[in-house]
Every structure is written in structure tokens, then in C-alpha cells.
Amino acid sequence: MAIHFFSEDVPFKLPEKLRRKRWLKSLATTAGYRVQELNYVFCSDEYLFQMNVDYLNHDTYTDIITFDNSEKVHALEGDIFISIDRVRENAKTHTTDEDSELTRVLAHGLLHLMGYKDKSKEEASLMRKKEEEAIELYRLN
Q: All domains of the chain, ordered by start, with CATH?
């Protein structure tokens, strides 16, 4: 049961690592999942853009890409890449602080691994609701 945080091509140090690990494990456990191995990789817009092109054939910038490596039901394994540039920009756009936006994106990746999608309007609405619940849980811990 391990959650790791890495930085790739950007100087970034995640604040409150242990608290965030406990929170992410709690989110998974509450939903009936077990964290096997999660790797969060913080990177630049350009790094994530290139991954989006190379692996997903999407010629767009994004804040997060999640790769599900799970082999067992309800056992979470994956690699979650987060653009710190996009998190900072989204925080400004949505008039929130960077820490709240980062918390939202951390939860977003985990929610994808738990099967939540965000392609349709209904899926996106449910995803936002789950993100808000996750942020509230983080604030309470």
C-alpha cells in the first residue's frame, strides 16, 4: 500500500505529503478500494502535452492524465501525471487558491482509477460532486 510523489522537469515539492497520503488512502478505503501502488508525477504543461500526444493521440493541453495499471478489482494501481502549470492557471481561472486546485486534481486522478468518468455532461457533474466531497474530507482531516 504505497503512494509516491515525484517531480519531473519542474521544481515542485508537494506540501503536507503524509497528510495527503492518509487522505487519498481514506478516499479509496471509504469507497471500498485498496491502494496498491499510486505514483503521482508533477510535471510541466509541455511534458504533459507531449504525453497526451504520444500516448492518447490528443493534441491538447490538460491538467491531468491517469494511467490505470490495476489488475485486480478494487485494488488501485496507477500513474497519475499532473501539470503544475495547468493547476496554477486553473486556480486563477476558477478564482480559487492553488492548494485547493491541487487537492481537486489529486482527487480527480484517484476518482478516475475508481471508475469515475468525465466525458459526458452527467459524468462530469458527478465527478465534480465527488471532487468537492473529497476536498471537504481533506479540509476536515
A: 2-140 (3.40.390.30)
